[in-house]
Design brief:
CATH superfamily of the largest domain: Hypothetical protein, domain 2
Shape: elongated
Radius of gyration: 19 Å
Helix content: 55-70%
Number of domains: 2
Low-confidence stretches: none
Distance between the termini: 25 Å
Structural class: mainly alpha
CATH topology of the largest domain: Endonuclease III, domain 1
Number of strands: 0
């Protein structure tokens, strides 16, 4: 990967001081989305407990779409899910039943097509789909501009002083230098922030 960041001295320094992030383990994108919804606004520990309870409701610990849709809301609530999250999980299952959320269907789509498709699900936002693209799908050129950690890292490392719309434009322009490896660049930025 030598020469990858020739246009960006800041990224060159990060790449020299931080071990290169490896591709993520392959995960089922449908289950990833379900887990992402369950984990929203919860600590890692609490989210893990509720995810385990949720998976244990299903034979083989796999939440097939038909089983999620048939599961009484009260049972899901008893596992620790809010009424809103219960509704969102059923929304994901409904789309998965009609248009499978699996690699065979998603791989043929561009990043933006996947974002447009999956954000039609009530409860699934752009950031959640970007994390799906970056991690279980290992798409190489994703830039989650709405991620607070990424924003804070760029602002700090690149001395960004702009605010509001001008800041957004500046961050986007900086990230343009990383194409077509913006996913890798973001992983470096997260690790740089974690080292502080």
């Amino acid at each position: 990967m030598a020469g990858l960041w020739n246009n960006d001295p800041v990224m060159q320094r990060l790449a020299a001081s931080i071990p290169q992030p490896q591709p993520s383990a392959v995960q089922d994108p449908y289950v990833y989305l379900l887990r992402a919804i369950i984990s929203q606004q919860l600590s890692t520990r609490v989210a893990s407990v509720i995810c385990e309870r949720f998976l244990n409701l299903f034979p083989g610990r796999y939440p097939h779409a038909e089983a999620v849709l048939a599961m009484p809301a009260e049972t899901l609530r008893a596992a620790g899910l809010s009424g809103q999250k219960t509704s969102y999980l059923k929304n994901i299952a409904a789309l998965h039943r009609s248009t499978p959320i699996d690699p065979a269907h998603l791989e043929a789509l561009s990043d933006e097509e996947i974002i447009r498709h999956l954000t039609t699900i009530k409860g699934v936002g752009r950031w959640t789909v970007e994390m799906l693209l970056m991690f279980p799908m290992n798409r190489p050129d994703v830039f989650p501009i709405d991620d607070l950690g990424i924003r804070q890292s760029i602002i700090s490392l690149y001395g960004v002083t702009e605010t509001g719309k001008a800041q957004l434009q500046k961050l986007t322009a900086i990230a343009e230098n990383w194409r077509p490896h913006r996913t890798l660049a973001c992983k470096y930025l997260w690790r740089a922030r974690d080292k502080k």
